[in-house]
Amino acid sequence: MVVDSETGRPVAVHDRTSRVASDPKGAREQVLAMLGPEVITDTAEPQHDPSARLARLIDLRDVRCAGPDCGSTRNHRDHHEPYLDGPTAAWNLGLLSQRCHAAKHHGWTLERHPDGSTTCTSPLGRTYDRPSPHTRPPKVARDAEPPPRRPPLKGTTPRWVTAAEPTPAVPPDGDAEAGPTPGPPDEPPF
């Protein structure tokens, strides 16, 4: 995914994967190469429904409905300008819930801003601002050292790691009658 460095808003999605270098220096060079400037073209598609790549970009970029006070995550990919007048392109598509999509066809207008925020205007002229769903990325110098690694959690064992079977206790010298010590209690059934 390619993200705008000023706003943190996704602007493109890559369909290819690449192997990560095995050494830390090579991995750092790969990350720096990915952070370099890239030319992104916003080309129009000839069909009404967006391709899978464009649909994924719209879903990642907008996250939720752009309507006022609507946080729906079940949305239509709506053409800002109707399909025959406006192309199927990233700048002309956005997520709207069924309710907000119907309101758009009944006089509400929606203005998308470059940072991802939106302004909705009702038929009576009242405006509603919606902030961007993305936060600005922090400013980091390209030659800065990476942050230190987090220390591992102590005293907890993840559920997917199976503990070794307890070894039977060795009886002390002269006490051959001692039986095995009980192991840990069984895991609860839930």
Explained architecture:
The chain is an alpha+beta fold and 190 residues long. It has a domain at 2-130. The chain has three helices and seven strands. It has helices at residues 24-35, 52-62, 98-104, and strands at 2-3, 10-12, 76-79, 93-96, 109-112, 118-121, 127-130. The strands form three sheets. A three-stranded antiparallel beta sheet has the order 5-6-7, with no helix packed on it. 13% of the residues are buried.
Primary descriptors:
190 residues, alpha+beta, two-stranded antiparallel ribbon, 3 helices, 16% helix
User: What structural class do you assign from the helix and strand content?
Assistant: alpha+beta
Strand arrangement across the biggest beta sheet: 5-6-7
Number of helices: 3
Q: How many beta-strand segments?
A: 7
Computed CA radius of gyration, to the nearest angstrom? 28 Å
- Could you give a short account of the major beta sheet? 3 strands, antiparallel
Compute the average pLDDT. Answer: 77
Order of helices and strands: EEHHEEHEEE
- Low-pLDDT segments, ≥5 res: none
Our measurement of the CA-to-CA distance between the termini, rounded to an integer number of angstroms, reads 39 Å
Estimated share of beta-strand residues: 5-15%
Helix content: 10-25%
Bulk shape = extended
